[in-house]
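Researcher: Structure prediction, please.
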Amino acid sequence: MEAQESTSTRWLQALPVDELQLNQKRMVRLNGKAILLINCDEGIFAMDNACPHWGFPLNAGKLSDDCTLTCPFHRSAFDIRTGDVKEWSPWPPAFGPMLRGIRRKNVLPVYETKLSDGLIWVKLEE
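Model: Predicted structure follows.
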């Protein structure tokens, strides 16, 4: 018989939807975790606020029209809808390839969101 892992998840209230305007980013703490909320044309998305490359904060990153978030430090880029890596550590030009090799490519953890009663909710594991 195989052991089954059980993870408990729950919806946590992040903030009122009117506090996150279109094309805005906002970092919130939920269960002690830094979560970045982004409101773009395709909806409201939640992800870790730490770049999986070196753990630098992503809330200062650049958001593109195609829902790509670029880390301001090493310019790794992620699809905020899926967390998929679009670019892995291309900067600085002289050291990017070396830095890219130090840490393996990792997706950006993303979390399910919903809007209810004028609030943004994020689904997190406990």
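Model: The chain has a mean pLDDT of 87.
Researcher: Thanks, that helps.
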